Backbone:
């Protein structure tokens, strides 16, 4: 069962964290077609589709592959690009998220050491 309050919180958190990374990746590879609002729509629709899969308890490797294809199709559609570029944009977005998390971790570690 999908809890509506948790879904709204998940959407807000994903929009704040994932949409900028997806938008930056789209801008880096396809600057003219990547708009921030499109990145937000990709995140919202992808999350809602994932919630539908969860609601109907569609799980397993097949469900994972279907959801990955849907996410790529959303990137392809909203950023008006091909399948390969949609895949590269998605991979670059993950790399951007990892780099940002690493930098934030270093900043947090530095702040923690200053407080000692």
Residues:
């Amino acid at each position: 069962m999908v809890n509506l309050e948790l879904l709204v919180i998940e959407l807000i958190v994903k929009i704040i964290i994932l949409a900028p990374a997806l938008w930056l990746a789209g801008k880096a590879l396809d600057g003219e077609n990547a708009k921030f609002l499109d990145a937000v729509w990709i995140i919202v629709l992808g999350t809602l589709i994932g919630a539908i899969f969860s609601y109907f308890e569609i799980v397993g490797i097949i469900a994972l592959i279907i959801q990955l294809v849907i996410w790529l199709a959303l990137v392809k559609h909203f950023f008006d690009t091909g399948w390969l570029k949609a895949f590269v944009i998605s991979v670059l977005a993950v790399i951007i998220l990892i780099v940002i998390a690493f930098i934030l971790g270093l900043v947090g570690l530095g702040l923690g050491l200053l407080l000692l």
